[in-house]
UniProtKB/TrEMBL annotation:
Keywords: DNA-binding, Transcription, Transcription regulation
Pfam family, one: HTH_5
Protein name stated in the entry: Putative transcriptional regulator
Organism of origin: Desulfoscipio gibsoniae DSM 7213
PROSITE patterns registered for this protein in UniProt: HTH_ARSR_2
Lineage: Bacteria, Bacillati, Bacillota, Clostridia, Eubacteriales
Ranges of residues in domain HTH arsR-type: 2-96
Domain of life according to the entry: Bacteria
Length: 97
């Protein structure tokens, strides 16, 4: 059997991105940082849902948050993830406005 440990990292990233909401969040953070309130408005989801999905993405090292006062602004922390999402979504990237 071939060494499968080299596939663990890519599989972990794919698993984290396999949820539509998480994929949408990452796509929305591709070019700029954003806070939870703006994301929940754009996604039309409850704040708790967005926060839960962000927690999963943070745990996997896909996004990172920077605190500015009382708000946390999130951004994509892994360049491999940016490239992967670009390939997956091509021209359908979401922008949080």
């Amino acid at each position: 059997m071939k060494e499968t440990s080299k596939y663990e990292e890519p599989a972990r990233l794919l698993k984290a991105l396999a949820h539509p909401t998480r994929l949408c969040i990452v796509a929305g953070l591709m070019n700029d940082s954003c806070n939870v309130n703006k994301m929940k408005e754009c996604l039309e989801l409850p704040q708790s849902t967005v926060s839960q999905q962000l927690a999963i993405l943070r745990a996997q090292g896909i996004v990172d948050g920077v605190r500015h006062g009382t708000e946390v602004f999130y951004k994509v922390a892994d360049e491999k993830v940016k490239e992967l999402v670009k390939v997956l979504l091509e021209d359908d990237l979401v922008v949080f406005k």
